Amino acid sequence: ELIKADFGAIEDLSKAIGLDSAYAEAYYQRALSLYHLKEYRNAIIDFNKAIQFNPQYADAYYYRGLTRGLLNEVNPACVDFIKAAALGNKEAVDFLEDCK
């Protein structure tokens, strides 16, 4: 069920992005769907866009960090967790211990 919902969400969010190419929330939501589908490289591209249009997007940094971690990109993941924590994402704080 989740996969089916994610495919539908990706389609809808792509339409929203087509209407407003600077819509940070749509990029973030589409990235989450891609993340759930294990399309990690594509998810990172969309997390990057969400952050580009909203540099204070703590959750986008956090999930980009998780995604980078799954791709064994440890240093970039830590940079994202540090930024996410600094912006107030509580979950990111749990990963900071691993970034020393």
Count every beta strand, where a strand is a DSSP E run of 2 or more residues.
0
Question: Structural class of the secondary elements?
Answer: mainly alpha
Could you give a short account of the major beta sheet?
none
Q: Assign an overall shape.
A: globular
- Report Rg: 13 Å
Mean pLDDT: 92
- Summed up, the helix count is 6
What is the helix content?
over 70%
Which percent range describes the beta-strand content? under 5%
Q: Summarize the helix and strand pattern as letters.
A: HHHHHH
Uncertain regions spanning at least 5 consecutive residues: none
Distance between the termini: 38 Å
What is this structure's SSE topology?
Blueprint: H1 2-19, H2 24-36, H3 40-53, H4 58-70, H5 74-86, H6 90-96
Helix pairs in contact: 1-2, 2-3, 3-4, 4-5, 5-6
Structure overview:
This protein is mainly alpha-helical. It has helices spanning about 1-20, 25-35, 40-55, 60-70, 75-85, 90-95. Helix 4 (about 60-70) packs antiparallel against helix 5. The chain is globular. The model has no long low-confidence stretch (mean pLDDT about 90).
